[in-house]
Design brief:
The complex is a heterodimer of chains A (204) and B (269).
Chain A (H helix, E strand, L loop, with lengths): L10 H11 L6 H13 L2 H17 L1 E2 L6 E2 L13 E8 L2 H9 L5 E5 L17 H9 L5 E4 L5 H14 L5 E4 L15 H9 L5
Parallel strand pairs in A: 3-4, 3-5, 5-6
Antiparallel strand pairs in A: 1-2
Chain B lengths: L5 E14 L3 E8 L3 E7 L18 E8 L4 E10 L2 H4 L2 H17 L7 H16 L5 H13 L21 E4 L4 E3 L11 E3 L1 H12 L2 H4 L6 H19 L5 H13 L15
Parallel strand pairs in B: 3-5
Antiparallel strand pairs in B: 1-2, 1-4, 2-3, 4-5, 6-7, 6-8
The chains are: A alpha/beta (204), B alpha+beta (269).
Chain lengths: 204, 269
Protein backbone atom coordinates (compact mmCIF):
# COMPACT_ATOMS: atom_id res chain seq x y z
CA UNK A 1 0.00 0.00 0.00
CA UNK A 2 1.23 3.46 -0.90
CA UNK A 3 2.03 5.66 2.03
CA UNK A 4 0.96 9.26 1.84
CA UNK A 5 0.83 11.95 4.52
CA UNK A 6 -2.38 12.03 6.52
CA UNK A 7 -4.81 14.70 5.35
CA UNK A 8 -3.26 14.92 1.87
CA UNK A 9 -4.96 13.55 -1.24
CA UNK A 10 -3.92 10.02 -2.26
CA UNK A 11 -1.18 10.02 -4.93
CA UNK A 12 -3.41 9.17 -7.96
CA UNK A 13 -5.63 12.11 -7.03
CA UNK A 14 -2.83 14.58 -6.44
CA UNK A 15 -1.15 13.47 -9.64
CA UNK A 16 -4.24 14.36 -11.70
CA UNK A 17 -4.55 17.65 -9.81
CA UNK A 18 -0.97 18.45 -10.81
CA UNK A 19 -1.68 17.58 -14.44
CA UNK A 20 -4.81 19.78 -14.61
CA UNK A 21 -2.91 22.59 -12.94
CA UNK A 22 -0.48 22.66 -15.87
CA UNK A 23 -3.31 23.61 -18.28
CA UNK A 24 -3.74 27.27 -19.24
CA UNK A 25 -6.24 29.15 -17.09
CA UNK A 26 -6.53 26.36 -14.50
CA UNK A 27 -5.52 27.38 -10.98
CA UNK A 28 -5.00 25.03 -8.02
CA UNK A 29 -8.65 25.23 -6.90
CA UNK A 30 -10.07 24.53 -10.37
CA UNK A 31 -7.63 21.65 -10.72
CA UNK A 32 -8.93 20.12 -7.49
CA UNK A 33 -12.56 20.60 -8.52
CA UNK A 34 -11.98 19.00 -11.92
CA UNK A 35 -10.16 16.07 -10.33
CA UNK A 36 -12.91 15.34 -7.82
CA UNK A 37 -15.44 15.70 -10.64
CA UNK A 38 -13.56 13.01 -12.55
CA UNK A 39 -13.86 10.74 -9.48
CA UNK A 40 -17.64 11.06 -9.56
CA UNK A 41 -18.32 10.51 -13.29
CA UNK A 42 -18.90 7.02 -14.77
CA UNK A 43 -15.64 5.22 -15.69
CA UNK A 44 -16.53 5.12 -19.42
CA UNK A 45 -16.78 8.93 -19.56
CA UNK A 46 -13.39 9.30 -17.94
CA UNK A 47 -11.86 6.75 -20.30
CA UNK A 48 -13.45 8.49 -23.28
CA UNK A 49 -11.78 11.75 -22.23
CA UNK A 50 -8.42 10.04 -21.78
CA UNK A 51 -8.84 8.32 -25.15
CA UNK A 52 -9.73 11.61 -26.85
CA UNK A 53 -6.54 13.19 -25.53
CA UNK A 54 -4.44 10.25 -26.71
CA UNK A 55 -6.03 10.32 -30.17
CA UNK A 56 -5.50 14.05 -30.38
CA UNK A 57 -1.81 13.56 -29.88
CA UNK A 58 -1.45 10.40 -31.96
CA UNK A 59 -3.66 11.15 -34.93
CA UNK A 60 -2.92 14.79 -35.69
CA UNK A 61 0.07 16.22 -37.48
CA UNK A 62 0.97 19.60 -38.86
CA UNK A 63 0.25 19.88 -42.57
CA UNK A 64 3.65 19.93 -44.27
CA UNK A 65 2.45 22.73 -46.57
CA UNK A 66 0.37 25.16 -44.51
CA UNK A 67 1.35 24.04 -40.97
CA UNK A 68 -2.30 23.73 -39.95
CA UNK A 69 -3.29 20.94 -37.57
CA UNK A 70 -4.64 18.04 -39.64
CA UNK A 71 -5.33 14.32 -39.64
CA UNK A 72 -4.05 13.81 -43.18
CA UNK A 73 -0.97 15.37 -44.71
CA UNK A 74 -1.40 17.50 -46.79
CA UNK A 75 -4.55 18.87 -45.15
CA UNK A 76 -8.00 19.12 -46.74
CA UNK A 77 -7.55 22.71 -47.85
CA UNK A 78 -4.07 22.25 -49.32
CA UNK A 79 -5.16 19.19 -51.30
CA UNK A 80 -8.38 20.80 -52.60
CA UNK A 81 -7.94 21.43 -56.35
CA UNK A 82 -10.73 24.00 -56.37
CA UNK A 83 -8.72 26.53 -54.36
CA UNK A 84 -6.68 29.41 -55.73
CA UNK A 85 -3.02 28.46 -55.32
CA UNK A 86 -1.71 31.94 -56.08
CA UNK A 87 -3.10 33.39 -52.82
CA UNK A 88 -1.83 32.64 -49.34
CA UNK A 89 -3.58 33.99 -46.28
CA UNK A 90 -1.15 34.09 -43.33
CA UNK A 91 -2.67 33.63 -39.86
CA UNK A 92 -1.31 33.41 -36.34
CA UNK A 93 -3.12 30.31 -35.07
CA UNK A 94 -5.08 27.35 -36.53
CA UNK A 95 -8.28 28.74 -35.00
CA UNK A 96 -7.94 31.84 -37.20
CA UNK A 97 -8.42 29.64 -40.28
CA UNK A 98 -11.84 28.63 -38.98
CA UNK A 99 -12.73 32.31 -38.55
CA UNK A 100 -11.69 33.20 -42.11
CA UNK A 101 -13.39 30.10 -43.54
CA UNK A 102 -16.65 31.07 -41.83
CA UNK A 103 -16.79 34.18 -44.05
CA UNK A 104 -16.90 31.90 -47.16
CA UNK A 105 -15.23 34.81 -48.93
CA UNK A 106 -11.74 33.41 -49.33
CA UNK A 107 -10.78 30.62 -51.69
CA UNK A 108 -7.01 30.64 -51.53
CA UNK A 109 -4.63 28.70 -49.30
CA UNK A 110 -3.46 29.39 -45.76
CA UNK A 111 -0.27 29.47 -43.77
CA UNK A 112 -0.22 29.16 -39.97
CA UNK A 113 2.66 30.91 -38.21
CA UNK A 114 1.92 29.32 -34.80
CA UNK A 115 2.51 32.54 -32.93
CA UNK A 116 3.41 36.12 -33.44
CA UNK A 117 6.57 38.21 -33.06
CA UNK A 118 6.72 39.41 -29.46
CA UNK A 119 10.10 41.04 -28.88
CA UNK A 120 9.71 41.63 -25.15
CA UNK A 121 8.79 37.99 -24.56
CA UNK A 122 11.78 36.89 -26.59
CA UNK A 123 9.66 35.48 -29.46
CA UNK A 124 11.38 36.36 -32.72
CA UNK A 125 10.77 35.44 -36.39
CA UNK A 126 12.89 32.32 -35.98
CA UNK A 127 10.42 30.90 -33.46
CA UNK A 128 7.56 31.06 -35.99
CA UNK A 129 6.87 29.13 -39.21
CA UNK A 130 8.35 31.93 -41.31
CA UNK A 131 11.05 29.78 -42.90
CA UNK A 132 8.36 27.36 -44.10
CA UNK A 133 6.44 30.26 -45.67
CA UNK A 134 9.59 31.41 -47.47
CA UNK A 135 10.05 27.89 -48.85
CA UNK A 136 6.49 27.83 -50.18
CA UNK A 137 6.86 31.20 -51.82
CA UNK A 138 10.14 30.27 -53.50
CA UNK A 139 8.16 27.73 -55.53
CA UNK A 140 7.08 30.69 -57.66
CA UNK A 141 3.35 30.09 -58.16
CA UNK A 142 2.27 32.46 -55.37
CA UNK A 143 1.19 35.96 -56.40
CA UNK A 144 -0.09 37.50 -53.23
CA UNK A 145 0.37 37.10 -49.47
CA UNK A 146 -2.55 38.31 -47.38
CA UNK A 147 -1.48 39.04 -43.82
CA UNK A 148 -4.36 38.23 -41.48
CA UNK A 149 -2.53 38.64 -38.17
CA UNK A 150 -4.35 40.32 -35.31
CA UNK A 151 -4.60 44.12 -35.58
CA UNK A 152 -2.48 44.77 -32.51
CA UNK A 153 1.13 45.79 -32.06
CA UNK A 154 2.54 42.28 -32.27
CA UNK A 155 0.40 41.26 -35.23
CA UNK A 156 1.39 44.42 -37.08
CA UNK A 157 5.06 43.88 -36.31
CA UNK A 158 4.78 40.36 -37.73
CA UNK A 159 3.06 41.64 -40.88
CA UNK A 160 5.67 44.31 -41.44
CA UNK A 161 8.48 41.83 -40.92
CA UNK A 162 7.06 39.35 -43.43
CA UNK A 163 6.37 42.12 -45.89
CA UNK A 164 10.00 43.24 -45.59
CA UNK A 165 11.12 39.69 -46.41
CA UNK A 166 8.70 39.00 -49.26
CA UNK A 167 8.29 42.29 -51.10
CA UNK A 168 11.85 42.15 -52.50
CA UNK A 169 10.93 38.74 -53.97
CA UNK A 170 8.40 40.48 -56.21
CA UNK A 171 5.35 39.41 -54.26
CA UNK A 172 2.36 41.53 -53.44
CA UNK A 173 1.93 41.60 -49.66
CA UNK A 174 -1.40 42.93 -48.38
CA UNK A 175 -3.03 42.99 -44.98
CA UNK A 176 -6.60 42.97 -43.79
CA UNK A 177 -8.17 46.44 -43.60
CA UNK A 178 -8.47 48.11 -40.24
CA UNK A 179 -11.63 49.95 -39.36
CA UNK A 180 -14.61 50.13 -37.10
CA UNK A 181 -16.21 46.88 -35.94
CA UNK A 182 -19.92 46.34 -36.71
CA UNK A 183 -22.16 47.58 -33.93
CA UNK A 184 -19.51 49.81 -32.36
CA UNK A 185 -19.61 53.44 -31.38
CA UNK A 186 -17.54 56.22 -33.03
CA UNK A 187 -17.30 58.13 -29.78
CA UNK A 188 -15.24 55.36 -28.19
CA UNK A 189 -13.03 54.63 -31.18
CA UNK A 190 -9.31 55.09 -30.61
CA UNK A 191 -7.47 57.41 -33.00
CA UNK A 192 -5.37 54.69 -34.63
CA UNK A 193 -8.46 52.77 -35.71
CA UNK A 194 -10.37 55.90 -36.67
CA UNK A 195 -7.54 57.38 -38.74
CA UNK A 196 -7.02 54.06 -40.54
CA UNK A 197 -10.78 53.85 -41.16
CA UNK A 198 -10.63 57.32 -42.70
CA UNK A 199 -7.62 56.47 -44.86
CA UNK A 200 -9.29 53.35 -46.19
CA UNK A 201 -12.76 54.84 -46.57
CA UNK A 202 -14.98 53.39 -49.26
CA UNK A 203 -17.68 54.65 -51.62
CA UNK A 204 -21.15 54.02 -50.26
CA UNK B 1 -3.99 59.10 4.52
CA UNK B 2 -5.17 56.21 2.39
CA UNK B 3 -4.97 56.65 -1.36
CA UNK B 4 -8.32 57.36 -3.01
CA UNK B 5 -9.91 54.31 -4.61
CA UNK B 6 -10.10 55.85 -8.07
CA UNK B 7 -7.37 58.00 -9.59
CA UNK B 8 -6.51 59.44 -12.96
CA UNK B 9 -2.99 59.48 -14.34
CA UNK B 10 -1.22 59.82 -17.65
CA UNK B 11 0.86 56.76 -18.43
CA UNK B 12 2.76 54.96 -21.15
CA UNK B 13 1.90 51.31 -21.78
CA UNK B 14 5.16 49.36 -21.51
CA UNK B 15 3.76 45.93 -22.24
CA UNK B 16 0.73 43.74 -21.83
CA UNK B 17 0.12 40.08 -21.19
CA UNK B 18 -2.97 37.96 -21.54
CA UNK B 19 -5.12 37.16 -18.55
CA UNK B 20 -7.93 34.60 -18.71
CA UNK B 21 -10.14 34.59 -21.78
CA UNK B 22 -10.62 38.23 -22.64
CA UNK B 23 -8.55 40.34 -20.24
CA UNK B 24 -5.03 41.68 -20.26
CA UNK B 25 -2.64 42.82 -17.57
CA UNK B 26 -0.97 46.09 -18.57
CA UNK B 27 2.37 47.28 -17.29
CA UNK B 28 2.01 51.06 -17.11
CA UNK B 29 4.68 53.66 -16.53
CA UNK B 30 2.72 56.44 -14.88
CA UNK B 31 3.69 60.05 -14.41
CA UNK B 32 3.23 60.17 -10.64
CA UNK B 33 3.24 56.61 -9.36
CA UNK B 34 6.02 55.01 -11.33
CA UNK B 35 5.48 51.57 -12.78
CA UNK B 36 2.34 49.66 -11.91
CA UNK B 37 0.25 46.78 -13.19
CA UNK B 38 -3.40 47.15 -14.06
CA UNK B 39 -6.04 44.80 -15.44
CA UNK B 40 -7.83 45.89 -18.60
CA UNK B 41 -11.00 43.85 -18.71
CA UNK B 42 -12.48 42.53 -21.92
CA UNK B 43 -9.88 44.13 -24.19
CA UNK B 44 -9.45 41.04 -26.32
CA UNK B 45 -13.02 41.26 -27.56
CA UNK B 46 -13.34 43.10 -30.84
CA UNK B 47 -15.92 45.55 -29.51
CA UNK B 48 -13.92 46.58 -26.47
CA UNK B 49 -13.90 50.32 -25.90
CA UNK B 50 -10.56 50.12 -24.15
CA UNK B 51 -8.62 47.91 -26.55
CA UNK B 52 -7.35 50.59 -28.94
CA UNK B 53 -6.11 52.77 -26.09
CA UNK B 54 -4.06 50.21 -24.21
CA UNK B 55 -1.67 48.87 -26.86
CA UNK B 56 2.03 48.95 -25.92
CA UNK B 57 3.70 52.30 -26.70
CA UNK B 58 0.45 54.23 -26.22
CA UNK B 59 0.55 57.40 -24.17
CA UNK B 60 -2.89 57.68 -22.62
CA UNK B 61 -4.80 59.03 -19.67
CA UNK B 62 -5.92 56.21 -17.45
CA UNK B 63 -8.57 56.07 -14.81
CA UNK B 64 -7.56 53.37 -12.37
CA UNK B 65 -9.53 51.81 -9.58
CA UNK B 66 -7.80 50.03 -6.74
CA UNK B 67 -8.81 46.38 -6.99
CA UNK B 68 -8.07 43.73 -4.41
CA UNK B 69 -4.56 43.06 -5.62
CA UNK B 70 -4.12 44.91 -8.92
CA UNK B 71 -5.44 48.17 -10.29
CA UNK B 72 -8.34 47.95 -12.71
CA UNK B 73 -8.54 50.21 -15.75
CA UNK B 74 -11.96 51.84 -15.75
CA UNK B 75 -11.32 54.31 -18.59
CA UNK B 76 -8.51 55.10 -21.00
CA UNK B 77 -8.12 57.77 -23.61
CA UNK B 78 -5.17 58.05 -25.96
CA UNK B 79 -3.07 61.21 -25.78
CA UNK B 80 -0.46 60.16 -28.34
CA UNK B 81 -0.42 56.89 -30.20
CA UNK B 82 3.02 57.34 -31.87
CA UNK B 83 1.72 56.08 -35.20
CA UNK B 84 5.05 56.63 -37.03
CA UNK B 85 6.68 54.18 -34.61
CA UNK B 86 3.96 51.58 -35.10
CA UNK B 87 4.12 51.88 -38.89
CA UNK B 88 7.85 51.31 -39.25
CA UNK B 89 9.61 48.15 -38.22
CA UNK B 90 12.91 49.91 -37.42
CA UNK B 91 11.29 52.58 -35.25
CA UNK B 92 9.08 49.98 -33.61
CA UNK B 93 12.03 47.80 -32.62
CA UNK B 94 13.71 50.80 -30.93
CA UNK B 95 10.46 51.87 -29.23
CA UNK B 96 9.90 48.41 -27.75
CA UNK B 97 13.52 48.27 -26.62
CA UNK B 98 13.11 51.63 -24.85
CA UNK B 99 10.00 50.34 -23.06
CA UNK B 100 11.76 47.14 -22.06
CA UNK B 101 14.72 49.07 -20.64
CA UNK B 102 12.43 51.05 -18.33
CA UNK B 103 10.44 47.95 -17.45
CA UNK B 104 13.56 46.03 -16.47
CA UNK B 105 15.27 48.87 -14.61
CA UNK B 106 12.37 49.92 -12.39
CA UNK B 107 10.33 48.25 -9.67
CA UNK B 108 6.58 48.72 -9.28
CA UNK B 109 5.60 51.56 -7.02
CA UNK B 110 8.82 53.57 -7.24
CA UNK B 111 8.09 57.11 -8.37
CA UNK B 112 10.24 58.19 -11.33
CA UNK B 113 8.88 61.29 -12.99
CA UNK B 114 12.25 61.95 -14.65
CA UNK B 115 12.23 58.55 -16.32
CA UNK B 116 8.61 58.98 -17.39
CA UNK B 117 9.58 62.24 -19.14
CA UNK B 118 12.64 60.57 -20.62
CA UNK B 119 10.62 57.72 -22.11
CA UNK B 120 7.99 60.08 -23.47
CA UNK B 121 10.65 62.30 -25.05
CA UNK B 122 12.41 59.23 -26.48
CA UNK B 123 9.21 58.00 -28.12
CA UNK B 124 8.61 61.46 -29.60
CA UNK B 125 12.17 61.53 -30.94
CA UNK B 126 11.77 58.04 -32.40
CA UNK B 127 8.63 59.24 -34.21
CA UNK B 128 10.33 62.04 -36.11
CA UNK B 129 14.07 61.49 -36.48
CA UNK B 130 16.01 59.76 -39.24
CA UNK B 131 18.69 58.67 -36.80
CA UNK B 132 16.73 56.44 -34.44
CA UNK B 133 19.68 54.98 -32.56
CA UNK B 134 20.96 58.07 -30.77
CA UNK B 135 17.70 58.66 -28.85
CA UNK B 136 17.95 55.09 -27.56
CA UNK B 137 21.59 55.53 -26.54
CA UNK B 138 20.60 58.73 -24.71
CA UNK B 139 17.79 56.88 -22.92
CA UNK B 140 20.15 54.09 -21.86
CA UNK B 141 22.77 56.47 -20.50
CA UNK B 142 20.29 58.77 -18.77
CA UNK B 143 18.48 55.83 -17.17
CA UNK B 144 21.78 54.45 -15.86
CA UNK B 145 22.62 57.89 -14.49
CA UNK B 146 19.25 58.54 -12.82
CA UNK B 147 19.28 55.14 -11.13
CA UNK B 148 22.86 55.44 -9.86
CA UNK B 149 24.68 53.23 -12.37
CA UNK B 150 26.58 56.03 -14.15
CA UNK B 151 29.69 54.60 -15.84
CA UNK B 152 33.07 56.21 -15.14
CA UNK B 153 34.16 58.01 -18.31
CA UNK B 154 36.83 60.48 -17.15
CA UNK B 155 39.34 58.44 -15.16
CA UNK B 156 40.65 54.90 -15.45
CA UNK B 157 38.53 52.81 -13.06
CA UNK B 158 41.68 51.18 -11.64
CA UNK B 159 44.53 53.70 -11.45
CA UNK B 160 42.30 56.81 -11.36
CA UNK B 161 44.46 58.68 -13.87
CA UNK B 162 42.78 60.93 -16.41
CA UNK B 163 42.02 59.01 -19.61
CA UNK B 164 44.20 59.95 -22.59
CA UNK B 165 42.74 60.36 -26.09
CA UNK B 166 43.91 56.91 -27.18
CA UNK B 167 42.16 53.56 -27.50
CA UNK B 168 41.08 52.64 -23.99
CA UNK B 169 39.10 49.62 -22.79
CA UNK B 170 35.44 49.36 -21.86
CA UNK B 171 34.52 47.14 -18.95
CA UNK B 172 30.99 46.77 -17.68
CA UNK B 173 32.14 44.67 -14.74
CA UNK B 174 34.40 47.42 -13.36
CA UNK B 175 31.90 50.17 -14.18
CA UNK B 176 33.57 52.19 -16.90
CA UNK B 177 36.82 52.63 -18.79
CA UNK B 178 40.26 51.12 -18.19
CA UNK B 179 43.44 52.77 -19.49
CA UNK B 180 45.81 50.68 -21.66
CA UNK B 181 48.23 50.26 -18.71
CA UNK B 182 45.62 48.79 -16.41
CA UNK B 183 43.98 46.51 -18.93
CA UNK B 184 44.24 43.07 -17.35
CA UNK B 185 44.29 40.16 -19.72
CA UNK B 186 41.72 38.03 -17.95
CA UNK B 187 38.84 40.54 -17.76
CA UNK B 188 36.39 40.69 -20.62
CA UNK B 189 37.12 44.11 -22.02
CA UNK B 190 36.49 45.66 -25.41
CA UNK B 191 38.49 48.44 -27.01
CA UNK B 192 36.75 51.80 -26.96
CA UNK B 193 37.81 54.59 -29.30
CA UNK B 194 38.43 58.21 -28.21
CA UNK B 195 35.42 59.26 -30.31
CA UNK B 196 33.16 56.77 -28.59
CA UNK B 197 34.24 58.07 -25.17
CA UNK B 198 33.51 61.62 -26.33
CA UNK B 199 29.98 60.67 -27.39
CA UNK B 200 29.40 58.64 -24.22
CA UNK B 201 30.36 61.70 -22.15
CA UNK B 202 27.93 63.81 -24.15
CA UNK B 203 25.15 61.28 -23.65
CA UNK B 204 25.80 61.48 -19.93
CA UNK B 205 26.29 65.21 -19.40
CA UNK B 206 24.80 67.13 -22.33
CA UNK B 207 21.25 68.21 -22.87
CA UNK B 208 19.34 66.51 -25.67
CA UNK B 209 19.31 69.75 -27.69
CA UNK B 210 23.11 69.41 -27.96
CA UNK B 211 23.15 65.65 -28.42
CA UNK B 212 20.70 65.75 -31.30
CA UNK B 213 23.07 67.86 -33.37
CA UNK B 214 25.94 65.37 -33.48
CA UNK B 215 26.26 63.03 -36.42
CA UNK B 216 27.43 59.53 -35.64
CA UNK B 217 28.86 57.41 -38.44
CA UNK B 218 27.69 53.78 -38.71
CA UNK B 219 30.83 52.21 -37.23
CA UNK B 220 30.76 54.49 -34.22
CA UNK B 221 27.03 53.79 -33.81
CA UNK B 222 27.75 50.05 -33.64
CA UNK B 223 30.53 50.62 -31.11
CA UNK B 224 28.26 52.70 -28.88
CA UNK B 225 25.38 50.25 -29.19
CA UNK B 226 27.54 47.31 -28.17
CA UNK B 227 29.21 49.11 -25.31
CA UNK B 228 25.98 50.37 -23.77
CA UNK B 229 24.06 47.14 -24.31
CA UNK B 230 26.86 45.21 -22.61
CA UNK B 231 26.77 47.66 -19.70
CA UNK B 232 22.99 47.48 -19.41
CA UNK B 233 23.04 43.68 -19.46
CA UNK B 234 25.69 43.61 -16.79
CA UNK B 235 23.76 45.96 -14.49
CA UNK B 236 20.48 44.11 -15.05
CA UNK B 237 22.16 40.71 -14.76
CA UNK B 238 19.94 39.55 -17.59
CA UNK B 239 19.37 39.98 -21.28
CA UNK B 240 17.24 42.68 -22.85
CA UNK B 241 15.09 40.54 -25.12
CA UNK B 242 14.05 43.13 -27.66
CA UNK B 243 17.72 43.75 -28.55
CA UNK B 244 17.51 40.53 -30.58
CA UNK B 245 14.53 41.99 -32.46
CA UNK B 246 16.54 45.09 -33.44
CA UNK B 247 19.06 42.70 -34.97
CA UNK B 248 16.34 40.66 -36.65
CA UNK B 249 14.80 43.66 -38.41
CA UNK B 250 18.21 44.86 -39.56
CA UNK B 251 18.98 41.58 -41.25
CA UNK B 252 16.50 41.44 -44.13
CA UNK B 253 17.17 45.04 -45.15
CA UNK B 254 20.90 45.54 -44.87
CA UNK B 255 22.12 42.00 -45.29
CA UNK B 256 24.36 40.26 -42.84
CA UNK B 257 25.74 42.36 -40.05
CA UNK B 258 27.17 40.55 -37.05
CA UNK B 259 24.72 40.40 -34.16
CA UNK B 260 25.31 42.80 -31.30
CA UNK B 261 25.39 40.44 -28.39
CA UNK B 262 26.15 36.85 -27.49
CA UNK B 263 22.46 35.93 -27.26
CA UNK B 264 21.35 37.47 -30.55
CA UNK B 265 20.37 34.72 -32.91
CA UNK B 266 21.24 34.38 -36.54
CA UNK B 267 18.63 32.87 -38.81
CA UNK B 268 19.01 31.63 -42.32
CA UNK B 269 15.98 33.70 -43.38
Amino acid sequence: MNQHPQGAAPPPVSRLIDEFHKLPGIGPKSAQRLTYHMLRIPPEDAIALAQAIIELKERTVLCSICQNVTETDPCGICSDDGRDRTLICVVEEPLDILAVERTRGFHGLYHVLHGVISPMDGVGPDDLKVKELLERVRGGSVREIIMATNPNLEGEATSMYISRLMTPMGLRVTRLARGLPMGSDLEYADDVTLSRALENRQDV
Amino acid sequence: MPRPRVSTTPAIVLRQRKLGDADKILTLFTANRGKLEAVAKGVRRSRSKLAGHVEPLSHATFQLAQGRSLFIVTQAETVESFTPIRDDLDRLSRGLYACEILDRFTETGEEHFELYRLLLDTLRRLSVRDDIDTPVRYLEMQTLDVLGYRPELDECVTCRKQLAAVTNYWTAAAGGVLCPNCRPGELSVRPVSPNAIKVLRMLLHARWSDVERITIDPDLAVELERALLEYVRWVLERDVRSAAFIDAVRRPRRGARPPVGPVARIADA
